[in-house]
Amino acid sequence: MRLFVALDVRGDIGEQLFAWQRRLQQTPAQVRWVRPDQYHITVKFIGFAETAQLDPICRRLDQAAAQVPAFPLVIQGLSRLESRGKVRIIMAEIGSPGRRITRLHRLIDQEMGALGFDLDTRPLRPHLTLGRVRSNHSLNKLLRRLEHYNADRMDPLGPWWISEALLMESIPSPEGTSYRRLHRAPLPPAAPSDPANHHA
After folding, report:
1. In what order do the strands lie in the sheet with 2-7?
2. Would you kindly state where each structural domain of the chain is located, as residue ranges?
3. CATH class of 2-199
């Protein structure tokens, strides 16, 4: 099984993202677009695991999630993710007041490392993948349209509250990758005095 930990996207937030995605799809750029029912925010890529490892993975994920009170997220705008100078990903930038998503990532990373999985060597850049670029064909047209949705030109979308971390299985197929939820790790409620409440 190919596993990762993700956060969910509230329905109305996903609908607005899909509306923006449809406008980007009007360009002839060659992009494999993510279906709205597959939207998620990856916190930790675990990698390949055996079925026998599922129970300890779930226990460790529960331990990490229990240390981070529920927190809000916002969509700051749309952007692109490059690798070796090439645009690879069209994405939504995620903002986390108080950087609580970073704390959650660090704790999950440590717990998975204790089970023998690779530790992350790069800082988390929270994002939601909208599409994966397949070629440079008409890419400039897409990038020009993408500029209309960057963080400098729009108000944040949200917030919405994160109350659980999800263990997901990635299932590849000729039609594209699909995802299956295997476990839900609840986050404790935010206290009334929690500074995160002031961002909601």
Report:
1. 41-48, 2-7, 164-171, 178-186
2. 2-199
3. alpha beta
